[in-house]
Design a protein that fits this description.
Elements: E1 2-7, E2 11-17, E3 23-30, H1 37-48, E4 56-61, H2 64-78, E5 83-84, E6 94-95, H3 105-117, E7 122-127, E8 130-136, E9 141-149, H4 151-161, H5 181-208, E10 213-217, H6 221-224, E11 233-234, H7 238-251
Parallel strand pairs: 1-4, 4-5, 6-9, 7-10, 10-11
Antiparallel strand pairs: 1-2, 2-3, 7-8, 8-9
Helix pairs in contact: 1-2, 3-7, 4-5
């Protein structure tokens, strides 16, 4: 068993993975506002309850203020020193970008798992607070990609800047040409993100000069990918499996 913590801008996803990297238990904790230490302790206890003790722990964080708090909670509850993954932690990839020290560990983990498990080259979509689209080529080189505002972030910006637009649920209407404001917003959010994914995948394939496998992860990937015209595989636990892969590469023989 391996305990993993994916610390994102919206949530901390704590998960326990078995020897085949299957998620056997999981818990989410909001990461936006500071919480008392016992909140993190309780979340870890919920993940570990009724399960075999983990042999190790790995943390991938894009929120520096929460990294040490999560590591401390893992130490208190599980008695483990977590591997805190950084942009230069060995992950089985050649980081072929100009400033490798700036690489987000969420991208590193997701792309490491994608490169290990899917045919190369692979394009990885992460539909989270931000939407990222990154590429690993056939030589296992991480080539970089694009970053844009996430679907919910874009909607919130639209709502805050426009007095008469209503807040909406993220559900796809049955058509793109909509005559009701709420339906138009939903169509723009979901079909717009799906069209973006199709278009960026096509452009990236043109730059590489070859077809790519496409994989999507992140909190909204299951909502967006069914409306893509290209085949983009939904893989909800990709990042968590990437953290497990990186732990094994760095700590597995200890």
């Amino acid at each position: 068993m391996l305990l993993t913590a994916d610390i994102g801008n919206t949530n901390i996803v704590l998960a326990l993975l078995d020897e085949k990297d299957r998620v056997v238990s999981q818990c989410r904790v909001p990461s936006g506002d500071p919480l008392p230490p016992e909140a993190y302790d309780d979340a870890i206890r919920r993940v570990l309850e009724g399960q075999a003790a983990p042999e190790g722990a790995a943390i991938g964080s894009v929120v520096p203020r929460l990294t040490a708090e999560t590591a401390d909670a893992i130490r208190r509850v599980a008695g483990l020193e977590a591997l805190v993954v950084g942009p230069t932690t060995p992950a089985g990839l050649d980081i072929a970008i100009e400033q490798p020290e700036t690489l987000g560990v969420d991208l590193l983990a997701a792309d490491a798992a994608a490169a290990a498990e899917y045919p190369l080259p692979v394009v990885v979509f992460d539909f989270g607070t931000a939407t990222t689209v990154t590429v690993v080529d056939r030589q296992r080189r991480y080539r970089g990609g694009v970053i844009l505002a996430g679907v919910k972030l874009s909607l919130h910006a639209l709502f805050s800047g426009t007095a008469q637009l209503p807040d909406i649920a993220l559900e796809a209407p049955g058509k793109v040409i909509c005559s009701v404001t709420e339906d138009s917003l939903q169509a723009g959010a979901i079909y717009g993100a799906a069209a973006m994914a199709d278009g960026l995948l096509e452009r990236m394939e043109e730059e590489l000069g070859q077809p790519c496998t496409a994989v999507a992860t992140g909190g909204l990937s299951g909502i967006i990918t069914p409306y893509c015209r290209r085949r983009i595989r939904h893989d909800d636990s990709l990042l968590l499996r990437g953290l497990a892969l990186i732990w094994r590469k760095n700590c597995g023989n200890r």
